Amino acid sequence: MSARLFHAAAIAAALSGCASAGFPPVTVPDALQPPAGHQLSLAANATGVQIYVCSAAKAGPAQAEWVFKAPEAALFDAAGAVIGKHYAGPTWEGNDGSKVAGEVKAKQDDAAGKAIPWLLLAAKSASGDGAFGRVSYVQRLATEAGKAPADGCTNADIGKQARVPYKALYRFYVAG
């Protein structure tokens, strides 16, 4: 999706009420806490999609399965203003041009089994002078939906994509 189309989609989501203002209260499990010495620097609500591709199953080419490809989401501040985007990498990029790419360090399944897991990610790269330029850890919390389609896919569907809506709260930490 081009930057212009992505920005338009983010504005449409905000205007349609998809992005809720404020941040949900969350009790974070110990396993998803960043190490001591890291301080919360930014929180953002995300509204977007988790993209899955129907591919040959690892268990055997005679079967097919949905495989995660990438996220695509707009990031909103507590007031509901678009502050950036989230995309493959996984990467979070601010409107100020700063960005951080992360790698999963810990995860915990959604207690209800209806949403993508909560995560703790460590920054593998960060750049720019803005909000994301010094981020060392990212938490994905309070997830809603986003799991691969339950109906599965068949060999006839190989190559097709499913764009599954999701929401999450992302918290960004910097070394203190």
TrEMBL record:
Regions annotated as coiled coil: none
Any single Pfam family the record assigns to this protein: DUF3455
InterPro entries: DUF3455
Signal peptide positions (record): 1-21
Keywords: Signal
Keyword Manganese set for record: no
Protein name per Swiss-Prot or TrEMBL: DUF3455 domain-containing protein
Organism in which the protein naturally occurs: Rugamonas rivuli
